[in-house]
Specification:
Keywords: Branched-chain amino acid catabolism, FAD, Flavoprotein, Oxidoreductase, Transit peptide
Oligomer: single chain
Organism: Hymenochirus boettgeri
Distance between the termini: 45 Å
GO cellular component, one term: mitochondrion
Mean pLDDT: 97
Pathway: Amino-acid degradation; L-valine degradation
Strand content: 15-25%
Order of helices and strands: HHHHHEEEEEEEEHEEHHHH
Strand order of the largest sheet: 1-4-5-8
Structural class: alpha+beta
Largest sheet: 4 strands, mixed
Domain Acyl-CoA oxidase/dehydrogenase middle: 99-192
Helix content: 40-55%
C-alpha cells in the first residue's frame, strides 16, 4: 500500500483490488469466525495488523477496520442464515460493508437518531438519512441503526440493507481533508422496504449492537493512529539525519533529540494502552468499554501530536505533498472525531469512575 498511498490520496481512488488481495491474507474478517470465512484472530492480533497496515496507508486501513467491524456485527448478532449469507462474501471482500449510525442531527448523541423503520407485514419501511458514511455509495452492504420503537436507545434496531434496494440512494461524494482513498457520502432512505429477515438480533437491541461494535472500532481506529505515528517517527529520524543546518545535521541538535525521544515515548505508551484495551475486550472484562474509550482518547490525541511534530521537524518540506508526513497528519486528524469524539470518550471514562 505504501507506494500507492499518495496516488490514492491525490486521485481519491478506492483501492478495491488491493483490499481484495489483503482479504486473501485474512484481513477482510480478521476477528470473524472461521466457519463463515473469517480469520478467527483475537482483538490483540487485530490491533497489531491494523497498526502495521496503517504505516502503508492510514485511509485505506481505516476503511478496512470499519468493514471488519461490520462483518463482526453480522457474525456476532446475526442468525445462522444471515451469517452464512453475508459473511463469506464480506470476508473475501467480494462485497464491502458500511456502518450507518451517524445522522445529520445526531452524532455523539446517537440515541436520538431519527431514521425510522416502520413495520409493514414482512418488511420494514425506512425513511431518513445517515451522514459521513465511509464507503457510502461504493459499498454493497449497509449495517443501519434505525428507530423501530419509541424515543431513546431502547427504540433502536439494526437492519442489514443491500445496495440496489429500491428507495436507497446516496448524497454527493464529500471533499475531505484526509481519508481520501475511501469515499464518504450521505446514505438516504425514502420508503426503502427491507425484509424483516434482515434484522440483526431482536427489535430494540440495535443500540446495544452499535455500542458493542464501536468498542472494537475504537481499538481499531486507535491502532491506525499508532501506525501513522510509527511511520512518522521513522520519517523524522531519516530527515534529521539527512538535513543540515548551520553546518551540522539536525540530528545533532539536542532540542530535536529530546523532541524525538518524547515522540517515541508517546508512541510506545499509546501502543501499550491500546494493546491492553484490546486484550480486555477479547477477555470480556467488566471495564473493557472504559478501557477502549481511554485507549481511543489517549492514542488518537498523542499520535496526532507525534505526526504533527514530525511534520514540524521536516520544516517547509513537511508541508509539501511530496513528503508523506503531511498525509499522515491529514489522515489521522479525523480519528479524534469519529467512533465517538474524544470529548465523548472523556464522558465515558468519567461516568465509569463516578459510578464505581
Amino acid at each position: 500500500m505504501a507506494p500507492c498511498m499518495a496516488l490514492w490520496d491525490e486521485k481519491e481512488i478506492f483501492p478495491v483490488e488491493t483490499m481484495r488481495k489483503a482479504a486473501q491474507l485474512g484481513f477482510g474478517g480478521i476477528y470473524t469466525q472461521p466457519d463463515v470465512g473469517g480469520a478467527g484472530l483475537s482483538r490483540l492480533d487485530t490491533s497489531i495488523i491494523f497498526e502495521a497496515l496503517s504505516t502503508g496507508c492510514v485511509s485505506t486501513t481505516a476503511y478496512m477496520s470499519i468493514h471488519n467491524m461490520c462483518v463482526w456485527m453480522i457474525d456476532t448478532f446475526g442468525n445462522e442464515e444471515q451469517r452464512h449469507k453475508y459473511c463469506p462474501l464480506l470476508c473475501s471482500m467480494e462485497k464491502f460493508a458500511s456502518y450507518c449510525l451517524t445522522e445529520p442531527g445526531s452524532g455523539s448523541d446517537a440515541a436520538s437518531l431519527l431514521t425510522s423503520a416502520k413495520r409493514d407485514g414482512n418488511y420494514y419501511v425506512l425513511n431518513g438519512s445517515k451522514a459521513f458514511i465511509s464507503g457510502g455509495g461504493d459499498t454493497d452492504i449497509y449495517v443501519v441503526m434505525c428507530r423501530t420503537g419509541g424515543s431513546g436507545a431502547r427504540g433502536i434496531s439494526c437492519l442489514v440493507v443491500e445496495k440496489g434496494t429500491p428507495g436507497l440512494s446516496f448524497g454527493k461524494k464529500e471533499k475531505k481533508v484526509g481519508w481520501n482513498s475511501q469515499p464518504t457520502r450521505a446514505v438516504i432512505f425514502e420508503d426503502c422496504a427491507v425484509p424483516v429477515t434482515n434484522r440483526l438480533g431482536e427489535e430494540g437491541h440495535g443500540f446495544n449492537i452499535a455500542m458493542k461494535g464501536l468498542n472494537g472500532g475504537r481499538i481499531n481506529i486507535a491502532s491506525c493512529s499508532l501506525g501513522a505515528a510509527h511511520a512518522s517517527v521513522l520519517l523524522a529520524c531519516d530527515h534529521l539525519c539527512v538535513r543540515k543546518q548551520f553546518g551540522e545535521p539536525l540530528s545533532s541538535n539536542q532540542y530535536l533529540q529530546f523532541k524525538l525521544a518524547d515522540m517515541a515515548t508517546s508512541l510506545v505508551t499509546a501502543r501499550l494502552i491500546v494493546r491492553h484495551a484490546a486484550q480486555a475486550l477479547q477477555d470480556g472484562t467488566g471495564n473493557a468499554a472504559t478501557l477502549c474509550a481511554m485507549a481511543k482518547l489517549f492514542a488518537t490525541d498523542k499520535c496526532f501530536k507525534v505526526c504533527n511534530q514530525s511534520l514540524q521537524m521536516h520544516g517547509g518540506y513537511g508541508y509539501l505533498k511530496d513528503y508523506a508526513v503531511q498525509q499522515f497528519v491529514r489522515d489521522i486528524r479525523v480519528h479524534q472525531i469519529l467512533e465517538g469524539t474524544n470529548e465523548v470518550m472523556r464522558m465515558i471514562v468519567a461516568r465509569s469512575l463516578l459510578q464505581e
